[in-house]
């Protein structure tokens, strides 16, 4: 399994537009390569995307991931601010730590509740959504995308493990480099891939 985080590092609308394109492109490339890509978390914005976490699995997942890791650049006059002098926009894609082993269930609290959204009587009458709380850290996640409570419990545990991995990574970085404004900083320069114009044509070579 490979876990990728797309981050705009709280960048402006143009970066969020670019991040939305990149997410769609990764999903498309993964499908073409026969790699299973699952969107685990997404923080959308009115312009596109602030951040997202993807899980890649399959024989060629390393190949797909390696094509995206690092800084990505979009060269384009701002579609939001025509008079803005800046034409270069950057986002980053980072590999999250491997998911650690979950603590035993004695350190986890499970809560069930009714799933929200549409779904008719099935959603309204069954408590299929699952919330999991890691008691030691207070970290909690909720899963309700699956129809069965068992499937949601499995997804919630996976999301909890991912959150714990992110929490651990944050602690390590803070210990090594002091307080950070964000988990990751997007480096401007030496981009892994460059896209140009409103059609996001890739610049090769």
SSE order: EHEEHEEEHEEHEE
Form type: elongated
- Note the gap between the termini: 30 Å
What is the radius of gyration?
19 Å
**With helices defined by DSSP (H or I, 4 residues minimum), what is the helix count?**
4
How many β-strands, per DSSP? 10
Largest sheet: 7 strands, mixed
InterPro entries: Pep_chain_release_fac_I, Pep_chain_release_fac_I_sf, PrfH, Prokaryotic/Mito_RF
Domain Prokaryotic-type class I peptide chain release factors: 114-130
Family: Belongs to the prokaryotic/mitochondrial release factor family.
Pfam families: RF-1
Describe the structure.
Residues 114-130 form the Prokaryotic-type class I peptide chain release factors domain. It comes from Eikenella glucosivorans. This is Peptide chain release factor H. The strands form 2 sheets. This protein has a 7-stranded mixed β-sheet with strand order 2-3-1-5-4-9-10. Strands 6-7-8 form a 3-stranded antiparallel β-sheet. Residues 118-124 and 175-184 have low confidence and may be disordered. The longest helix is centred in the last third of the chain and has 29 residues, at 149-177. Helices cover 30% and strands 30% of the residues. The protein has helices at 13-32, 61-66, 120-125, 149-177, and strands at residues 2-7, 36-44, 49-57, 70-75, 88-95, 108-113, 129-134, 140-143, 193-196, 201-203. It has 205 residues and is of the alpha+beta class. It has 4 helices and 10 strands, in the order βαββαβββαββαββ.
């Amino acid at each position: 399994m490979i876990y990728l985080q797309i981050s705009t590092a709280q960048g402006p609308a143009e970066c969020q537009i670019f991040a939305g394109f990149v997410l769609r492109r990764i999903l498309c490339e993964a499908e073409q390569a026969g790699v299973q890509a699952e969107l685990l978390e997404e923080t959308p914005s009115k312009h596109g995307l602030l951040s997202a976490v993807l899980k890649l699995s399959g024989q060629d997942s390393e190949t797909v991931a390696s094509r995206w890791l690092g800084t990505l650049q979009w060269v384009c006059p701002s579609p939001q601010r025509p008079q803005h002098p800046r034409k270069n926009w950057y986002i980053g894609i980072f590999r999250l730590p491997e998911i650690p082993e979950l603590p035993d269930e004695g350190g986890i609290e499970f809560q069930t509740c009714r799933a929200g959204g549409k779904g008719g009587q099935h959603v309204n009458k069954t408590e299929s959504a699952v919330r999991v709380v890691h008691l030691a850290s207070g970290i909690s996640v909720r899963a309700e995308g699956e129809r069965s409570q068992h499937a949601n419990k499995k997804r919630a545990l996976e999301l909890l493990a991912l959150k714990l991995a992110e929490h651990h990574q944050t602690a390590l970085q803070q210990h090594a480099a002091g307080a950070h404004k964000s988990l990751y900083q997007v480096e401007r320069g030496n981009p892994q891939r460059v896209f140009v114009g409103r059609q996001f044509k890739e610049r090769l070579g």
